[in-house]
């Protein structure tokens, strides 16, 4: 069965926080992708926790995986990320729900591990970004995920590169931007960002992730109106990451278990893929699933 959005689907939450909660050290530059090689069973367990919490879609641990980071192992480990998520979907103790696998394609800046994924403007051309992303996408697609997740994309150049690669392939994908206020992290108007996918049938949904939940709420109706497509939305908890202290601080402003109003608002404004990113746990995903029809 092909991946489709004829009804709302629940995405998973933060894979990294689930792995960290299980005691795994993610301080390496490869972040959670390191465990694809070093502890694949831990990756399966994290995926399974989200599926059993109510997620319909599990997102692979390939966000920060690259040929630059893994060298000759890259193709194998990228495909392995899909296999592990699929294995978790088979093992998950759920009712008769169809479970899907989304292959994560993170931004170029994630590979640098210096925070530039939240700034964009890497100094690379669109063609150079195409050359970076194409082998990753080809490796992931060869493992037959249900959909590709182009996620946490900070600027229009990188989005254009991804659209260039996927257009005409027939491979389904979603594209979600990292944002601040009403702009991409690189400062471009969101309306321009969402308009990029309007005439690309391979992009099934467009929206935002890894952002402030209040910004996400404003972005959802804009994404629906500009693109004419279903919207994907999975923000962070609202807490902020302190790169110096390497810790989260601030107030949690997205807590579905106690306040479902953002979820119901996103749904009514056109969202069809709803979940969470950093600091969103299986408990939160259970609450989101409860509020979706």
TrEMBL record:
Record flagged with keyword Transcription regulation: no
Question: Source organism's superkingdom?
Answer: Bacteria
Q: Which UniProt keywords apply?
A: Metal-binding, Methyltransferase, Transferase, Zinc
- Can you name one GO molecular function term for this protein? metal ion binding
What cofactor does this protein call for? Zn(2+)
Give the matching InterPro entries. HCY_dom, HCY_dom_sf, Hcy_S-methyltransferase
- Any idea which positions bind Zn(2+)? 210, 277-278
Q: Does the keyword Calcium apply?
A: no
Q: Which GO terms describe its biological process?
A: methionine biosynthetic process; methylation; S-methylmethionine cycle
Q: Which residues form the Hcy-binding domain?
A: 1-292
Q: Name one Pfam family in it.
A: S-methyl_trans
What is the protein name for this chain? Homocysteine S-methyltransferase
Write down the PROSITE patterns for this protein, in alphabetical order: HCY
């Amino acid at each position: 069965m092909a991946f489709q959005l004829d009804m709302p689907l629940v995405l998973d939450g933060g894979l990294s926080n689930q792995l960290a909660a299980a005691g795994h050290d993610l301080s390496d530059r490869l972040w959670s992708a390191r465990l694809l090689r070093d502890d694949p069973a831990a990756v399966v367990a994290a995926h399974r926790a989200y599926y059993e919490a109510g997620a319909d879609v599990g997102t692979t641990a390939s966000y920060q995986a690259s040929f630059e980071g893994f060298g000759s192992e890259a193709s194998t480990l990228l495909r392995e990320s899909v296999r592990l998520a699929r294995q978790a979907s088979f093992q998950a103790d759920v009712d008769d729900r169809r479970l899907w696998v989304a292959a994560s394609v993170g931004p170029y800046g994630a590979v640098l591990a210096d925070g530039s994924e939240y700034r964009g403007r890497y100094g690379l051309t669109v063609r150079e970004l195409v050359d970076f992303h194409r082998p990753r996408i080809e490796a992931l697609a060869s493992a037959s995920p249900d959909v590709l997740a182009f996620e946490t994309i900070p600027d229009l150049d990188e989005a254009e590169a991804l659209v260039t690669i996927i257009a005409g392939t027939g491979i389904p994908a979603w594209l979600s931007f990292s944002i601040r206020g009403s702009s991409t992290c690189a400062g471009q108007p969101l309306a321009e960002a969402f308009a990029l996918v309007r005439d690309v049938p391979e992009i099934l949904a467009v929206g935002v992730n890894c952002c402030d939940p209040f910004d996400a709420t404003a972005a959802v109706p804009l994404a629906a109106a500009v693109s004419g497509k279903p919207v994907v939305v999975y923000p962070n908890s609202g807490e902020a990451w302190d790169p110096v202290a390497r810790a989260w601080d601030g107030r949690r402003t997205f807590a579905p278990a106690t306040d479902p109003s953002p979820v119901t608002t996103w749904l009514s404004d056109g969202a069809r893929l709803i979940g969470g990113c950093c600091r969103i746990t299986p408990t939160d995903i259970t609450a989101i699933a409860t509020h979706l029809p």
